[in-house]
Amino acid sequence: MEKLETLTYEVTGAVARITLDRPERGNGITLEMPRELAACVERANLDPAVHVIALAGNGSGFCGGYDLVASAEGRMEGVATPDAPEGSPLDPLVQMRNHDPEGTWDPVVDYQMMSRNVRGFMSLFHSEKPVVCKVHGYCVAGGTDMALCSDLVVAEDKAKIGYPPARVWGVPTTAMWAFRIGPARAKRLLLTGDSIDGTTAVDWGLAAEAAPAAELDQRFEDLLERIAQLPVNQLVMHKLLVNQALYAQGLHATQVLGTFFDGIARHTEEGFGFQQRAAEAGFKEAIRDRDEPFGDFGR
Fold first, then answer.
1. How far is CA 293 from CA 72, 166, 197, 288, in A?
2. What is the pTM of this model?
3. Is pLDDT of 244 > 70?
4. 3 state SS of 8
5. CA dihedral in degrees (31, 34, 38, 41; nearest 10)?
6. What is the pLDDT of residues 131-161, one digit of tens each?
7. Helix, coil or strand: residue 146
8. Alpha helix locations (H) across the chain?
9. How buried is residue 88: exposed, middle or buried, by Cβ count under 10 Å (0-12/13-18/19+)?
10. Which of 137, 169, 219, 259 could form a cystine bridge with 211, CB 3.0-4.6 A?
11. What is the mean pLDDT of the chain?
12. CB–CB of 29/37 below 8 Å?
């Protein structure tokens, strides 16, 4: 495997540990992260010693979503993968031109870029071996895609979990909310952009367990240890069995719609207004303007 830039990978006993490792940027998602994630998931699936995958984040929180400073502020620096083919949907110049309010918008360019991220996140769902995600601090926006594509979530009781870009400039591309917590509760979060804490996440069926910060690591390790005692073949069959229910409910078709809608959300009048505010005042100030009326700016 090539050197990892956005996360780390190690195996301890029967556990493969994937850790998001951009703490200085809140583990913000770049185009490279979903690709590295998928490569690590494949590595774990092919390792006969591994029974379960542990997904976590380094630093003060699990993941604050996409690292949107470059795209929102208009520079597109660092957005592309290092080997992005010139003229492709991953070329930052192509993306920059496609987000010009005065230009012509090609929704397929957005879809081609974002659908590749969805494939990376969904590597967790498609993984033959189970994935347990530890959520501490914040798990918001695109960060929820990785948590919800995991099989089980162990959350800090006071974690912040939600999709604030529902208010402007975003639609969840993996579209997992309704499948994980049901349509009524999914609408409660997406029609407000509100977040919930880890305790509520357990009550709503989103997380398997919640614990105070001081106990979170131990609870996470205890669950990993219990899962790791099962034979790999049993784990694979059980996960495949349960996943079929979501496939049958139309998960893939819903994700295609969510990914297209996400591109549309960045090209509405309000979406362009958000982008212009970020370009003028900085991305953080644009987020502040979006969230302060709801009283939940920051964690």
1. 20, 14, 20, 9
2. 0.95
3. yes
4. strand
5. 140
6. 999 999 999 999 999 999 999 999 999 999 9
7. helix
8. 32-45, 69-73, 92-98, 107-126, 143-149, 177-181, 183-190, 198-203, 213-228, 232-248, 251-265, 269-281, 283-291
9. middle
10. 219
11. 95
12. no
Query: 């995600």: which residue's tokens?
Result: 133
Residue type, 226: R
121 close to 146: Cβ distance less than 8 angstroms: yes
DSSP 292: G
With a pLDDT cut of 90, the percent of the chain lying above it is 91
Alpha-carbon Rg for the chain in angstroms: 19
Q: Is 123 helix (H, G, I), strand (E, B) or coil?
A: helix
Residue corresponding to tokens 């784990």: 235
| d(C-alpha 219, C-alpha 13), whole Å | 17
Q: For residue 254, give both structure tokens.
A: 């819903």
Are the CB atoms for 72 and 181 separated by under 8 Å? no
Q: Which amino acid is at 141?
A: A
CB 75 within 8 A of CB 33: no
Q: How far apart are CA 33 and CA 66, in angstroms?
A: 10
- Three-state SS string over 165-196 comes to HHHCCCCCCCCCHHHHHCHHHHHHHHCCCCEE
Supply φ then ψ for residue 30, to 5 degrees: -110, 175
